[in-house]
Design a protein that fits this description.
439 residues, mainly alpha, Preprotein translocase SecY subunit, three-stranded antiparallel beta sheet, two-stranded antiparallel ribbon, 5 strands, 5% strand, transmembrane, SecY_dom_sf, protein transport, transport
């Protein structure tokens, strides 16, 4: 405990770090306050306040802003969608690949394209959101004028959230976009925890303690999944430049067990709404279609979870293949005079890295699928629907990843000022740590 208070004192004794933490807290407060500002022309008492399906997932990420018809109802999600599209374009199209290799100027052009695409996506998502989630009885004005004005407001709200995320990245601590999502998820945790306590009552205190212990072990497992890496040793040849000798060191290429992060779960969860949606079209004329619709509308059925897990495994292999390029890694190593001991540079090195990546991706995808279906298992075991969402899935993975990134940022400031790190042994490794680590 003494070490903990010493670390806190050291954190706030560093002026730059203290300023960044205060700025981050201030920006997050602004974001949360905006989540409670209702769109003009809406009577909030007429809203159901209970989003289901994909809307429920978005509402979890946005901390309730989606179901509250807030000016931040779409939040940062259109920007994330635009970023994913641009990221895929940089892999598929040579034009975007060249732009990505142009350095700072190319990065600025890609950011500008992402911002413009964000506005386009926000407009289309805004129309769908206003049509699907806000009933006519909740409107105080004509729907036509309400739709036009609300699309403008929602677009401005998304741009403002995007600006807040960039300010947190520049003036605060950590990745601002990820932190906005995390704070939206965490904001729902106290309410769901209190609701779970009330539902258990005084006689269910022991069960509630067991739920908390199980949640603790799940969080530990997710941290292990996020941190796990397979280190490939790399030896660099000695080079004499002038009177100095460079190289000759053994370093490592850390290949993460879960290199794809939460993207496979997001992709799979988006597709899981298609079976129920398609089945509803023929539900009135077919008992089979009605049965399929009911089955895939319930996230606790075994059919839903088996298909969900298989999609996650497939998308994990797919996303890992498009984000980790063994050929590029092998080429960079060869150019810098590096080689894997016992493996020839060039194509044999690329094949070796690809083989290792394939072997670790399979258990990683299985663990990721297990984490994704844990909320359904918890709900079947008696945990309330809202509280069970914190036992795994996208929410828990995002929270763990962002918290680890933030702790890594804080630890780097402490170590630069020659203070002790956050941990007694070892280093905190965030998701952004993909460089070779010297032994």
């Amino acid at each position: 405990m003494k070490r903990f208070f010493t670390t806190i004192r050291n954190i706030f004794s560093i002026e730059e770090l203290r300023t960044r933490i205060i700025n981050t807290i201030g920006f997050l407060i602004i974001f949360r306050l905006g989540s409670f500002v209702v769109l003009p022309g809406v009577n909030p008492d007429k809203l159901s306040g209970d989003a289901q399906g994909i809307f429920g997932l978005l509402d979890t990420f946005l901390g309730g802003a989606f179901s509250n018809a807030s000016i931040f109802a779409l939040g940062i999600m259109p920007y994330i969608s635009a970023s994913i599209v641009v990221q895929l374009l940089t892999i598929a199209l040579p034009y975007f690949q060249r732009m990505q290799k142009e350095g700072e100027s190319g990065r600025k052009r890609l950011n500008q394209i992402t911002r413009v695409l964000t506005i386009v996506i926000t407009v289309f998502q805004g129309i769908g959101y206003l049509t699907a989630t806000i009933p006519s009885e909740a409107l105080l004005v004509d729907r036509y004028y309400f739709t036009i004005s609300s699309i403008i407001i929602l677009t401005a709200g998304t741009i403002f959230c995007m600006w807040l995320g960039e300010r947190i990245t520049d003036k605060g601590i950590g990745n601002g976009i990820s932190m906005l999502i995390m704070i939206g998820i965490i904001s729902r945790f106290p309410g769901s925890l209190v609701a779970e306590v009330i539902s258990r009552g005084t006689g269910g205190f022991l069960l509630f303690v067991l739920e908390i212990v199980a949640l603790l072990f799940v969080v530990m497992g997710v941290v292990m999944l996020t941190q796990a890496t397979r280190k490939i040793p790399v030896q660099y040849a000695k080079q004499v430049v002038g009177n100095k000798v460079y190289g000759g060191q053994r370093q490592y290429i850390p290949l993460k067990l879960n290199a794809s992060g939460v993207m496979p779960i997001i992709f799979a969860q988006s597709l899981m709404f298609l079976p129920a949606l398609v089945a509803q079209i023929w539900a009135d004329n077919s008992d089979l279609a009605a049965s399929v619709g009911n089955t895939f509308s319930d996230f606790t059925t075994w059919q839903y979870n088996v298909l969900f897990a298989l999609l996650i495994i497939v998308f994990t292999f797919f996303y890992t293949a498009i984000t980790v390029n063994p050929n590029q890694i092998a080429e960079d190593m060869k150019r810098n005079g590096g080689f894997v001991p016992g493996i020839k540079p060039g194509k044999p090195t690329s094949e070796f890295i690809d083989n290792v990546l394939s072997r670790i991706t399979l258990p990683g995808s299985i663990f990721l699928a297990a984490v994704a279906v844990l909320p359904a298992v918890a709900n079947i075991a008696g945990v309330s629907r809202e509280f069970s969402q914190f036992y795994g899935g996208t929410s828990l993975l995002i929270m763990v990843g962002v918290i680890l990134d933030t702790l890594q940022q804080i630890e780097s400031y402490l170590l630069m000022r020659h203070y002790d790190g956050m941990m007694e042994s070892g280093r905190i490794k965030g998701r952004a740590q993909n460089v070779a680590v010297a032994q």
